[in-house]
């Protein structure tokens, strides 16, 4: 039965929202609050991912970073990011993003536009400050992460590190370790087996079936020595809250927090932390030229591409 539901989701995007609602009713009819199986959760995760329509998102974020070295200090700044994504089912699908902020580290205002067409990233970054008056740099490269400051928007949905969470569970394994919370905030805590060198890493995903199988928390955990005892501690984590039902079967967070930790000998310390305020728009009118980017007359940087890719 699960295979036939997944097959339905994999072909007709136009009926995904109806299929998602049908799958939720179907699964709820056979599962109590704590009776969901991993197979049922994976069906729900795949349905939710494939049912997500194109979207725009505005992310007003407050960023706090710790700068190590001779001038060790903490820096804080407000970052405004805007994305248009017309292929949310694909973690590597094309998007356009804009962001701007005042960077206290270099005492400058930064504005960047970037377009990822699924294969090549083109970006234009302008830095305006008291030191240099203004510098514009165009970049063409094959590394999608260059476009982002903080997590890409799919990581507030059903993705992590440019893979869907269902793909990560399928690749590395996963099991329901426990259930937490009550009502609509009731979540299945899914953990992978120990991974990496000497089994010192693993994933954790908290899935809320009542919120359209939203992944309300995701983390990469490391096994670290804490006061002489080995304990699992997040290396990075994203927690989403304040969910609202945007349309039938689709629940979206209005707030999120992303945190990255560093591990000096003294113990875990906060590397950076970003508080996100999210505004979503589903089914935006997106003209085809929205994914084009015109380069100014400016210095260019090209990395990791064949000559044909830069045309």
Oligomer: single chain
| Strands ordered across the widest β-sheet | 9-10-11-12-13-14-15-1-2-3-4-5-6-16
Low-confidence stretches: 1-22, 24-31, 304-311
Strand content: over 45%
Principal-axis shape: globular
| Main beta-sheet strand count, sense and barrel state | 14 strands, mixed
Structure description:
The chain has 311 residues and is mainly β. The chain has a domain at 79-148 and 285-310. It is built from four helices and 16 strands. It has helices spanning 2-9, 16-30, 38-50, 165-172; strands at residues 55-67, 73-85, 95-103, 108-116, 121-129, 135-141, 159-160, 163-164, 175-180, 187-191, 201-208, 214-226, 229-247, 250-262, 269-282, 300-303. It has a 14-stranded mixed beta sheet, covered by helices on one side. Strands 7-8 form a two-stranded antiparallel ribbon. α1 runs parallel beside α3 and α2 packs antiparallel against α3. The longest helix has 15 residues, at 16-30. The chain starts with a helix and ends in an 8-residue tail after the last strand.
Summarize this, please?
With 311 residues, the protein is mainly beta.
Features:
single chain; 311 residues; 14% helix; 47% strand
What topology does this entry show?
Layout: H1 2-9, H2 16-30, H3 38-50, E1 55-67, E2 73-85, E3 95-103, E4 108-116, E5 121-129, E6 135-141, E7 159-160, E8 163-164, H4 165-172, E9 175-180, E10 187-191, E11 201-208, E12 214-226, E13 229-247, E14 250-262, E15 269-282, E16 300-303
Parallel strand pairs: 6-16
Antiparallel strand pairs: 1-2, 1-15, 2-3, 3-4, 4-5, 5-6, 7-8, 9-10, 10-11, 11-12, 12-13, 13-14, 14-15
């Amino acid at each position: 039965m699960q295979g036939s539901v997944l097959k339905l989701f994999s072909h007709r995007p136009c009926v995904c929202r109806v299929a998602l609602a049908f799958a939720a009713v179907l699964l709820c009819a056979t599962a109590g609050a704590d009776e969901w199986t991993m197979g049922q959760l994976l069906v729900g995760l795949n349905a939710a991912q494939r049912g997500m329509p194109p979207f725009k998102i505005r992310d007003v974020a407050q960023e706090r970073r710790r700068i190590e070295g001779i001038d060790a200090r903490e820096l804080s700044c407000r970052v405004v990011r805007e994305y248009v994504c017309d292929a949310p089912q694909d973690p590597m699908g094309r998007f356009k993003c804009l962001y701007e902020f005042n960077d206290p580290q270099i005492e400058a205002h930064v504005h960047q536009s970037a377009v990822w067409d699924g294969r090549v990233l083109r970006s234009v970054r302008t830095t305006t400050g008291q030191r240099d008056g203004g510098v514009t740099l165009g970049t063409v490269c094959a590394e999608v992460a260059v476009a982002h400051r903080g997590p890409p928007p799919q990581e507030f949905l059903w993705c992590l590190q440019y893979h869907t969470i269902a793909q990560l569970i399928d690749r590395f394994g996963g099991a329901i370790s426990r259930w937490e919370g009550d009502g609509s905030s009731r979540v299945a805590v899914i953990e992978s087996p120990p991974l990496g060198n000497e089994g010192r890493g693993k994933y954790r995903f908290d899935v809320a079936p009542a919120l359209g199988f939203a992944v309300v928390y995701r983390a990469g955990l490391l096994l670290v020595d804490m006061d002489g005892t080995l304990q699992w501690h997040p290396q990075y984590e994203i927690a989403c809250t304040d969910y609202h039902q945007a349309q039938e079967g689709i629940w979206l967070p209005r707030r999120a927090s992303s945190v990255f930790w560093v591990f000096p000998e003294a113990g875990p310390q906060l590397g950076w932390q970003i508080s996100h305020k999210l505004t979503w728009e589903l089914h935006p009118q997106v003209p085809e030229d929205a994914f084009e980017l015109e380069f100014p007359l400016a210095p260019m940087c090209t990395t990791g591409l064949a000559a044909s890719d830069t045309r």
